[in-house]
Design brief:
Helices cover 41% and strands 24% of the residues. With 205 residues, the chain is an alpha/beta fold. It has a single domain (31-204), classed as Rossmann fold. α6 (130-151) links the parallel β4 and β5. α6 (130-151) runs parallel beside α7 (168-178). It is an enzyme of class 2 (transferase).
């Protein structure tokens, strides 16, 4: 089957991508690891002892980064609709975050522990219809924000991937109602042509 132009473009970028090669060298499962590393270097979200949830965790690069930092006194809880190979000291549940049963199972896993941090790199399967894809993406973001509001300790932080579009400003407003400060981050490892941006909510009210 002949590849589409966009598929060929992605393949060419992937093969020649500095971050892809760096991930292989450093033992990370995906280039996305460096997005979290850069943001964490700047904002110090993950520290030894941090207890956090990683939403949309597969294939696991963010959980890898987090687990290497939190140490024995911290904990990483991860969830994704896709399977994820085990990572030492990371508790993982496979399931659809949009389903109440899966969410309840994940909350049970926390065992009453309030979280210091929620990180979400969730994104829907892309259909190619931008309006539909944006709506699906922001629905996941809204669910992640609600989870963060309910499960974070007071003063906790929330990092979420969003795509700039018509829902961006209303979502930003919603985050400002939950957190004392909201800032944006565009890591160097994000592809230049991508509309993705990371919003960081600091200090849950």
């Amino acid at each position: 089957m002949k590849r589409s132009t966009s598929s060929n473009q992605w393949l060419s970028e992937h093969v020649n991508d500095h971050w892809v090669h760096q991930a292989k060298q450093d033992g990370y499962r995906a280039r996305a690891a460096y997005k979290l590393i850069e943001i964490n270097d700047k904002d110090k979200l993950i520290r030894p002892g941090t207890v956090l949830a990683d939403l949309g965790s597969a294939p696991g690069s963010w959980s890898q980064v987090a687990s290497r930092i939190v140490g024995d006194k911290g904990k990483v809880f991860a969830l994704d609709i896709l399977p994820m190979d085990a990572i030492a000291d990371v508790s993982f549940i496979q399931g659809d975050f949009r389903e109440d049963e899966v969410l309840d199972q994940f909350i049970d896993l926390l065992d009453g522990r309030a979280l210091d941090l929620v990180i979400s790199d969730m994104a829907p399967n892309i259909s190619g219809m931008s309006v539909m894809d944006q709506a699906r993406s922001f629905h996941l973001c809204e669910l992640a924000l609600e989870f963060a509001r309910e499960q974070l300790r007071p003063g906790g932080n929330f990092l979420v991937k969003v795509f700039q579009g018509s829902e961006f400003q209303p979502y930003l407003k919603a985050m400002r109602e939950v957190f004392s400060e909201v800032v944006s981050r565009k890591p160097k490892a994000s592809r230049d042509r991508s509309t993705e941006i990371y919003l960081l909510g600091k200090g849950r009210r």
